[in-house]
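Please decode residue identities from the backbone states below.
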């Protein structure tokens, strides 16, 4: 059993507690710079992005909570998390989404010669993502890729293949909480210097799924676009999850009290 190794490194941004989970108050550029420092520091590090539904799941999932608490970076993937931070008087700088962060990290990896590995989703989605980035960044070093359909018994074998690929950066698209739990348990075994869970990003990058229009993203309605696109699969995640998240935020707000200092 590998133990996760982390070299000490300082990253910018105060971690703000929202619904019981710490979220880093970083802009997208600050997040990218922090990731680069983590990579240069050596060891194995990982980042996670959170939205309302994921924070609601963490409330009842000790494994997801542990994975998020162990992450070197946690950023707000959903505008609801940003709005909650402002309601709590702490004010995150903004969203830092998994799909946007992946795109910027791949561009930077191509410039710096850092090999990347793509793990997760369906075969056509991960293959399409590799093709997309290979076309956009011809100098990108793709260490390898694999779909996300494998049993728990194969975890060690998958991690070993990633280690032998020599990848510096690992993108994992298994959905939540599976991807966070997998990264937390297997990161050191993969040898990757930095890993990031990116949810359904491979479907979007490969063109198999459409992303919400920019105006909906900016208005915090990307969740609604996804819900309308896949109501049967996502209704519980967003309608129930968002309601639970709202209740958690209200409870946190009430515990602060009228005279409690806020950041």
């Amino acid at each position: 059993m590998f133990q996760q190794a982390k070299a000490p490194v300082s990253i910018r941004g105060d971690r703000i507690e929202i619904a019981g989970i710490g979220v880093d108050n970083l802009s997208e550029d600050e997040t990218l710079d922090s990731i680069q420092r983590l990579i240069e520091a050596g060891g194995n590090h990982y980042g996670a992005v959170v939205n309302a539904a994921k924070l609601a799941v963490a409330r009842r999932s000790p494994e997801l909570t542990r994975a998020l608490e162990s992450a070197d970076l946690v950023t707000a993937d959903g505008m609801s998390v940003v709005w909650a931070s402002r309601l709590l008087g702490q004010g995150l700088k903004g969203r830092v989404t998994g799909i946007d962060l992946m795109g910027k990290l791949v561009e930077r990896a191509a410039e710096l010669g850092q090999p990347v590995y793509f793990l997760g989703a369906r075969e056509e989605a991960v293959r399409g993502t590799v093709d997309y980035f290979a076309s956009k960044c011809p100098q990108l070093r793709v260490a390898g890729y694999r779909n996300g359909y494998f049993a728990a018994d194969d975890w060690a074998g998958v991690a070993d293949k990633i280690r032998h690929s020599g990848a510096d950066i690992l993108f994992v698209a298994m959905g939540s909480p599976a991807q966070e739990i997998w990264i937390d348990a297997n990161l050191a075994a993969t040898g990757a210097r930095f890993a990031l869970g990116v949810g359904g990003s491979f479907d979007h990058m490969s063109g198999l799924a459409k992303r919400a229009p920019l105006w909906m993203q900016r208005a915090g309605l990307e969740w609604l676009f996804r819900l309308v696109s896949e109501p049967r699969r996502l209704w519980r995640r967003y309608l129930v999850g968002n309601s639970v998240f709202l209740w958690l935020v209200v409870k946190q707000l009430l515990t602060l009290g009228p005279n409690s200092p806020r950041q």
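Observation: The chain has twelve helices and eight strands.
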